[in-house]
Write a structure and sequence with these properties.
globular; Rossmann fold; 149 residues; alpha/beta; 5 helices; five-stranded parallel β-sheet; disordered C terminus; 17% strand
Length: 149
């Protein structure tokens, strides 16, 4: 794989879940660089500082310490440099109130964490396919090359 690859931020406080997410993306063949945050406050600081590269995707657990995932999503949508970044909420919460709140705050997808390795592998493939399809559309309209090319 050539090029810089995709830039992904993962906000997840469970080390086990983070490693499974990371491995599922690697197994999918996705060329990506992952920046991880284990609490919401650190992720919000990263977003609001305004330095560094804007990612291609944020994968966000709702139930993280310091500042919850909804607060992180609100910070992403409130930052003009980051407002366009897709945010996939990846959580164990089945609460209709959480689903509604994420939708209201502008989350792009609400995904329930799978309970088995096969589910995580499917998640990795779906992320790769979504990024590849959407990067092509985004870069066709902007005239630039998609990541990884």
């Amino acid at each position: 794989m050539e090029g810089r690859g995709y830039q992904i931020i993962v906000v997840e406080d469970s080390r086990a879940d983070f490693h499974i997410i990371q491995e599922s993306l690697r197994q999918s063949g996705l060329n990506c660089q992952i920046t991880a945050f284990s609490d919401g406050a650190a992720a919000i600081l990263h977003v609001t500082r305004g330095d560094g590269q804007v990612p291609d995707l944020v994968i966000l657990d709702l139930n993280v310490p310091e500042a919850d995932g909804a607060s992180v999503l609100n910070a992403v949508r409130g930052n003009t440099r980051w407002a366009h970044v897709p945010v996939f909420v990846f959580t164990a919460s089945l609460s209709p109130a959480d689903v509604a709140r994420v939708k209201m705050l502008g989350g792009d997808r609400y995904l329930i964490k799978p309970m088995d390795l096969a589910g995580f592998e499917k998640f990795g493939r779906e992320i790769r396919e979504w990024l590849e399809q959407n990067a092509l559309r985004t870069h066709e309209t902007s005239g630039s090359s998609p990541p990884g090319t």
